[in-house]
Amino acid sequence: MGIGLTHYLILSGILFAIGLFAVITRRNAIMVLMGLELILNSANINFIAFSRFGGINLDGQVAAIFVIVLAVTEAAIALAIILNIYQNYKHIRIDEINKLKE
Amino acid sequence: MTQENLLMIPEISVVILLLPLLGFLFNIFFGKRIGRLSSTIATGIMGICLALASYIAFTKFVYYPDNGMIQLKFDWFTLGPGNAVSVGIGVDNMTAMMLVVVTLISFLVHLFSTEYMRDDKRYSRFFAYLGIFTFSMLGIVIANNFLFMYIFWELVGLSSYLLIGFWYEKDSAANASKKAFITNRVGDLGFFAGIMILFFTYRTFFFDDIFAKILGDSLHGIAPILPFNSGFWLTVAGILIFCGAIGKSAQFPLHIWLPDAMEGPTPVSALIHAATMVAAGVYLTARVFPMFTAHALLFVAYTGAITAFLAATIAITQNDFKKVLAYSTVSQLGYMVMGIGVGAFTNGFFHLVTHAWFKACLFLASGSVIHAMHHAMHHLNDHHTDPQDIRNMGGLRKTMPLTYLTFLFATIAISGVPFTSGFLSKDGILAGTLAFAQLTGNWLIPIAGFGAAGMTAFYMFRLTIEAFHGVPKTKIATQTKENKFVIVFPLVLLAVMSFWFFYSANPIDASKGWFASRMKAPATSVPTAYQFRFLVPEERLKQEEEAQEKLEKANVDENTEKLKKRIHEELEIAYATGQENRDSVEKYKQEFLKNKEEAKARARHPLMAKKSMKDGSGEKEEFLTVFEEKIEEAHLPAMFISVLIAGLGILLSFTVYQFKAMNSDNLANQFGLLYRLSYNKWYIDEIYDASVIWFTLNFSKVLGLFDLKVIDGIVNLTAWVARLAGQATGIFDNVVVDGLVNLIANVTGTLGSIMRKFQTGRVQTYIGLTIVVVILLVYFLA
Amino acid sequence: MQNFLGLGPLTWITFLPLLGMIIIFLIPSGKDEKGKETSKQLFRWVTIGFTFLQLIIAIGIYLNYTAGMTGINVEGGFQFREHYNWFTVTGLPMFGNVKVDYFVGIDGISAPMILLTAIVCFVASFASFSIKKQIKGYFAMYLLLDLGMMGVFISLDFFLFYVFWELMLLPMYFLIGIWGGPRKEYAAIKFFIYTLVGSVFMLLVIIGLYFGVHSFNMLDMMDPLKYDPTSIFAPGHGWWRNVAFFALFVGFAIKVPSVPFHTWLPDAHVEAPTPISVILAGVLLKMGTYGMLRINWPMFPDSVKYFQCFIAWVGTVSILYGALCALGQFKVGKRDFKKLIAYSSVSHMGYVVLGMSSMNSSGMSGAIFQMFNHGTITSMLFIIVGVIYDRAHTRGLDDFGGLANKMPIYTGIMAIAFFAAIGLPGMSGFVSEMMIFLGAFMAYPILTVISGLGIILGAAYMLWALQKVFFGKLPDRWSGPWDPTHKIYKTDDINAVELAALIPLAILIIGLGIYPAPMFNMMNATVNHLVEFVRIGGGF
Question: A97 CB near a chain B CB, below 8 Å?
Answer without folding.
Answer: yes
